[in-house]
Design a protein that fits this description.
68% of the residues lie in helices and 0% in strands. The protein has 168 residues and is mainly α. The protein folds into two domains: 27-93; 97-126 and 136-167, no CATH class. The chain is elongated, with a radius of gyration of 22 Å. The protein starts with 12 loop residues before the first helix and ends with a helix. Pfam families: MARVEL.
């Protein structure tokens, strides 16, 4: 018995648009001059300081510092990711994503979890625990609170942006 095979090929305009639009990558130099941009860079620099100060110690012997490391590294990576998205204006190419809501949820969760991590970090620092690592843990605690305040500021600006979008 003979079978007939029909193959239909279609051309997609998506690939044509993709190849045409990806040839130039936009770069928003002005973003770093805004308050949210400056806060984001500060979060990256000081967040890196938080987790490197802890990573240079024997933090794995104390579960509390493991939690601080998780929060610090997790939000450091995500903040770098969002900085790249904002600097390259990728958010304008993906209009399906509600970026104001995503930014508000990201910054709000970062603020809450970093605040908890900073409190845990500060309450776990004692000279009796391990005097060799005391200075690193104390410094990481201080910088964790500074990063927390940066995320609080970005949460405020994200809320203002989200609020103005929902009122339109």
């Amino acid at each position: 018995r003979s079978r007939s095979h029909t193959v239909t090929t279609t051309s997609s305009s998506f690939t044509a648009n993709l190849s045409g639009s990806s040839s130039t990558l936009a770069y928003d130099r002005e973003f770093l001059r805004t308050v949210p941009g400056l806060l984001m860079v500060t979060e990256i620099v000081l967040g890196l300081l938080v987790w490197t100060l802890i990573a240079g110690t024997e933090y794995f012997l104390y579960p509390a510092f493991g939690w601080v490391m998780f929060v610090a590294v997790f939000y450091w990576v995500l903040t770098v990711f969002f900085l790249i998205i904002y600097m390259t204006t990728t958010y304008t190419r993906i209009p399906q994503v509600p970026w104001t809501t995503v930014g508000l949820c990201f910054n709000g969760s970062a603020f809450v979890l970093y605040l908890i991590a900073a409190i845990v970090d500060a309450s776990s620092v004692t000279k009796e625990l391990d005097s060799h690592n005391y200075n690193s843990w104390a410094a990481s605690s201080f910088f964790a609170f500074v990063v927390t305040s940066c995320y609080a500021g970005n949460t405020y600006f994200s809320f203002i942006s989200w609020r103005s979008r929902t009122l339109q």
